[in-house]
Structures are given as structure tokens and as C-alpha cells.
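Audit log entry. Action: structure prediction of a protein-small molecule complex. Ligand: glutathione. The ligand was supplied as SMILES and no pocket hint was given, so placement is left entirely to the predictor. Protonation state taken as written. Sequence taken verbatim from the request; no trimming, no tag removal. Recorded inputs:
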Amino acid sequence: MTSEKTSPLKLFGTWSSSYTHRVQLALKLKGLEFEYVEEDLSAKSPSLLLYNPVHQKVPVLLHGGRPLAESIVILQYIDETWRESPLMPEDPYERAIVRFWCHFSDDKLAGAVAAVFRTTAEEQKAAVAEVHQNLAVIEGELREGHFKGRRFFGGEKLGLLDVVVGCGSFWLSIFEEVAEVKLIDEESFPLFHGWLRQFEAQEAVKETIPPADRLLEYAREVRHYLVSLSSQVKATSDDSGRVNVDPEEDKDG
Ligand SMILES: N[C@@H](CCC(=O)N[C@@H](CS)C(=O)NCC(=O)O)C(=O)O
């Protein structure tokens, strides 16, 4: 059974989730109508558990009743199903390059940014240094590498990699304020900084990303929770250094 292109689209997401924003943005860039269902991740709905039993995370996209999970998988499905306004290049090598940098963004950059957010003191300094190293790699690609001379990673228009990197990048300035660190230094990363400003200026992006004050308030609460949980864990470590309580993973992306 295949879903018709015109079959209804339903997106399960969470307002603060950059993974959800990726899918919302891609659907908007394609001009597709969809129903949005807000999930409460502290009390996941039976539908979410049914449609994403493996990871039990948002986003989940239902197309004609058929579920898809994992944001990058969903983005590629959207792009392959609705060929208008392509998000991926045609050439297989170029497509592979986009996938490579999507993985870099999720595996390396996002991990380091999350670590800055949940740590303090020396641990946080190390995480900030890791973010800077990863941003320097992207800056190098924009300056001399694969994306040299492009307005966006996708060329003149936003592409899949812009959606993936961009939807996480608005957290950088939020985390700078909440965790009192400097992550995007315009002098060190002028091309990345310029790219991010252009990304944020796109109408579809402005419609997708929640207002900064709401994100700030939310981020302050979550950081407070994570930092206090981590100090509790340190306090309950036994003499051998073994930790007695597992800190809950970062609740959000
Ligand atoms: N790799 C997943 C990550 C999705 C993810 O981490 N979603 C978070 C919200 S931002 C979530 O649903 N967390 C709930 C949980 O971990 O139980 C993707 O790209 O879709």
C-alpha cells in the first residue's frame, strides 16, 4: 500500500523541539498543509507510543495513516514524495555530502551543545571548546570546502542541511544567555554567523521557531533542573566513584 501524495499529513511534535521544527519547516518550504498535534513528553500519548514504539520520541509524521519517525528520515521522505522545491541535490555524490553533514550536525555539534547546557565549571569549559572545534570545522567548509561561496548549504535556497543545522542553531544564542557562555563568536566564525542570520531571516523560519522569550524561560527551567540533578548525582556517588542514580537524559533537543 502506498500513500497518495494528497493523503492527509499529521505531525506529532513538541513546541520546543528543534527536531519537530525541522519537519514543520520542511513541510512549509514544500507548501504542504498538515495537522499538528502537540505532545506532552512527560505524559506521552498512546498515539506517539503506537507510532514510534522504538524511540518513543517526537517528531512523528503520519502520511495517509502510515507513520514515520526520526527527523532526517522524515525530511528525506518529504523531499522524495513531493519533488517540487527540492531540498536535496540531484547528484548522488552531492546527496551523500548532505547526509554526511547532517550526521556531523546531530552526532558532533548537537551533542557538544547539549553538554554545554547541562554542565557547569570545568566540564562546561570542555564542552564549549568542543562546540568551537565543531563550528570551526563548519566554518572551514564554508570558507574553503564543499559549501564555499554558497548563500545557503543548499545553494541559493534553503536545502535539507540548512533545515537540519539551522533548526538547532537558534538554541546557540538561547544557551549563551542561560548558561552564560559564548558559543558563536562572530569574529571567529563570520561565515557561519552570516549564514545563521540569513537563515533566521527567512519567512518560513520566522513562522516556525518559537519566540525567544518563551524559549529562554523554558531553557532556564530545564537547565536549573539538569544542573541540580547532576549535583544530586555527584553527591550520591559512593567512595569508589560509582554513581548511584542515573541522571535522566536531556529532555529536549
Ligand atoms: N533522532 C531523533 C531525536 C528526536 C528527539 O530527541 N526528540 C525529543 C524531543 S526534542 C523527544 O521526543 N524526547 C522524548 C524522550 O526522550 O523521551 C530525531 O531526529 O527525530
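Audit: result stored. The mean pLDDT is 92. The longest helix spans residues 92-118.
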